[in-house]
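Can anyone check this?
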Amino acid sequence: MEYKLKLAILDMNEGKPNQGMRCIRDITTMYSSAFDIDEFDVRVTNVVPGLDYDVYISSGGPGNPMEGNGVWEKAWYKLVGDLWEYNQNSKIEKKFMFFICHSFQMACFYFELGTVASRKSTSFGVMPVHKTRYGDNDPIFKKLPDPLYAVDSRDYQIIQPDLDVFRMHGAKILALEKIRTHVEYERAIMAVRFSEEFIGTQFHPEADPVGMKIHFEKPEIRQRVVENFGKIKYDSMMEHIDDPDKIELTHDTILPLFIENALETIFANNSVMV
């Protein structure tokens, strides 16, 4: 029987219908020959995976990232802490984790990397994301242009980074939100490499253009977006969805490279142990 690695998907959507989980499933399924893949509906069941997985992907989700029901968020934070400690103590074997949107905010809150703050208004649409010099040299982000484009959907953000804490953890800011010359709000952090094994994005790297277009062309979804954000925002988003150099490139790069880099490292480490 062929040995497979294990990949855990942490669904943080609280049982609410969403496109993110479909997109994550589509991407991870491409690697099903290498992984046994399990899902955990964290906020519904209060259950998180154990430490017996090799790769973890924690999804976006609704609500305040600093709040929970007193059970699931404690289990989630304990998992993150245990995985971090595992990597600190293990010289060869490593565990890999990717944080998306809500999970990214929770991870930044857990590691005390900056201020988690509510936005003045919801950020929604296909947005430019600007790389930092660390992003330019990151093994994943260096494969993307500057700016890269991504689907953004959030009511909270990470601002005011504590650079001393970043240095203490060895973390790096990889990207910041779009430059807004007409307002004085601080630019939010859009991506962080917490360590060689932990990385996260404020935006949704899993969003795929075909599925997103079908979803947002539904009359009831279109009406909801236009009512909440205006027709100009809707038309701009649909135009960007069709551009192969925008979210399609982001979709094809970030999560696939995260998984492939994890596989490469795990196999290299296993060969050292043999």
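Reply from J.R.: I decoded it. The beta strands are 5-11, 35-41, 55-58, 96-100, 115-131, 148-159, 172-177, 189-193, 198-201.
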